[in-house]
C-alpha cells in the first residue's frame, strides 16, 4: 500500500506566498481527516469535468483522456487498498490532484482548469449526499418492514394506550407499532424532498463569478446525473442549505427514534413488563448482578442530542456569513458527517434491537383492565342511544367516581343496579361494550386500532416500502 505525499505540505495553488506555512497553521486548517470520505465523489466529479474540458477543446483531447484514465486508476487503487490517503494533505481535493500530478506530471495540473475549490466542494458534497442519503432511506425502509412484520403477528394483542402517561384507552400492539412506522414514512419523504432540492449541479460557478472559459456545464450535469444546473454562481458556492435541510431531516428522524426508545425503556421495566429485549441488545450492571438494562435504547435516545447539536452548529455557522464563500464553511462537513453517521448507526441498531425483542402479551392485556380505560366507550354507548356527548361524558365520569369511591378498579365490575342508576339509557347490554376487546373492535374506522383497520395500515405500509424499494432498484 502506498501513500502519496505532498512533501512541502503546501497547496498546489499557493505560489503567491514567499514564506512556508507554519506547521500549526497547516494542522489547524487541514480538513483531510474529515473530507477523505468524499474521495470517490471528488474523483467522479473531476472525471466528468476533465471529459468536458477535452470535448470543448479547452485542454487537448489527449490530455483529457490521460487525466480521465489516470483518475480512474487512482479511484481503483484507493478502493482496492493499494493507495492510502495522505493525512498530511490539506484536503481531499489537493490530495487527488497531487497524486494525479505525481503520476502524469504537469498534465495533471490542467485538471483544475475552469473550476475553483469553491464549486468543487459544493459538487462533492451533493454527490456524497445523494448516495449516502439513499443508503439511509434504505435503512428506514428496512426498519419499517421489521416493525410491520412484528405488527402483523399482534393485530389482536391488546395494549393500553396512554395520554399524560396515564392509561387512557385500549389499543393493540400492532396499532402502536404502526404509529411508530408512519413518522418514519414522513422521515423518508423529507429526505426525498431534500434530495430533490440538492439535485442541481454547481460546477462551473468558479470561486463566485463563473468562468470566462467556454465550459459546458450541462454536459457535466448530464454525466453526473443531475437534473438541472444551479442558476446563480454566487448562490451556488455560498449556500449550504442542502446540508441544513439534510441534517434537519435527520434531526426529526432522531426525534422519532428517541421517542420510540423512551417507550422501550419504560416498557422494559418491571412496572410495565411489556417488552423483553434480547440479551444481545441489553447490558448488565457493574454492581447489581440481577440487572438487564436497555442501554442501546437509552444510547439512541441520548445520541439524538448529537444530531440536534450538529444542526445547531450548521445553522450558527451559516447565519452571519456574507456572500460568497467563507472559510467558516469548511466546518460544515464535520457536522454533516457526524449527524449522518449517528442517525445511520441508530437506525441499524434500533432495527436489530426491535427485531430480536419478545413481547409479554399477557401483561399488556392485563394492563388494559383497571383504571377505567373503557370510560369513553360508556360515553359512546350513551351517545348511540341519543344522549348528547357532553352529557354522556358527565354520566361516565360519575360512574368512574362511584367506582373509585367503592374501590372497584373497572366499571365493568359495577353491579347493574348501581350502573343503571346513573342513567335510564343504560341497559344490561352495556357490559358487552366495556371489555377491552369490544373497545378496540368498536374503533373500526380508518386509522383506528380495530384489527381490520390496522390490517389496512399494514397493507399501506407494505405498499409504501415495496414501492420505494422498487424505485431504488430502478
State the gist of this model.
The protein is mainly alpha-helical. The protein contains 18 helices and eight strands. The chain starts with a strand and ends with a helix.
Q: Could you outline the blueprint of secondary structure elements for this entry?
A:
Elements (H helix, E strand, L loop, with lengths): L1 E2 L19 H7 L2 H4 L3 H17 L5 H19 L3 E2 L7 H13 L12 H36 L5 E6 L2 E7 H25 L2 E2 L15 H8 L3 E2 L3 H6 L2 H27 L7 E2 L18 H24 L13 H24 L2 E2 L1 H6 L8 H10 L4 H18 L9 H5 L15 H6 L9 H23 L1
Parallel strand pairs: 1-2, 5-6
Antiparallel strand pairs: 3-4, 7-8
Can you describe what's shown?
It is a single chain. The chain has 474 residues and is mostly helical. It is 59% helix and 5% strand. It has 18 helices and eight strands. The strands form four sheets. The protein has a two-stranded parallel ribbon with strand order 1-2. A two-stranded antiparallel sheet has the order 3-4. Strands 5-6 form a two-stranded parallel sheet. Helix 8 (217-224) links the parallel strand 5 and strand 6 (228-229). The longest helix has 36 residues, at 117-152. The radius of gyration is 30 Å and the shape is elongated. Mean pLDDT is 93; it is low at 5-10.
